[in-house]
Amino acid sequence: MNAWTFAIVCLLVLTVSASSMANNAYYIKQLWQMENAAREGWNPKTQRWVGNAAPEQGGKIDYGPGLKLPYKQGGYTQAEIDKALVEKIHDIENTLRKNVASMGKNFDALSEKQRMLLVDYSYNTGSAFGVFPKMSRAIVNKDKQGMLAEYKRYWVDRSGQRREVLNRNQWTRSIIDSM
What we know:
Strand content: 5-15%
Shape: globular
Number of domains: 1
């Protein structure tokens, strides 16, 4: 690889990294609010995340903003949680690049709001395209009516009751309305 090719590759990596939702302060703040506004699992004495029971049926332990991490004696520092969150969002974005490419489009060319919604659906459900395929396609295609028809998310609590994810649905609706 010559110097010019290397420089272009580095610039592309920096551009993709800079546009990552992991670097979007607004999204990260909203994610924390939606996932764990009460900071459950935070131990102020030890300054560590010791985990808390996940609210969903079949859920195990969540750390920080709903991260599913292996048990660690003594818990995780905030820096470790932040690093795990960035890594998870980068993994999600890499998967979404493939999903969006299969539609003949470029994930990184989507608007910030489109990318934010796709990342959030994947973060929240594990797979935007797997769990919400109609919504995911509507986001990629900027189909506002399709998004409005498909955006609501639900979860099943430990007692087996299906519940609407109200705060997340309100946030999602506000993003859609602003598009």
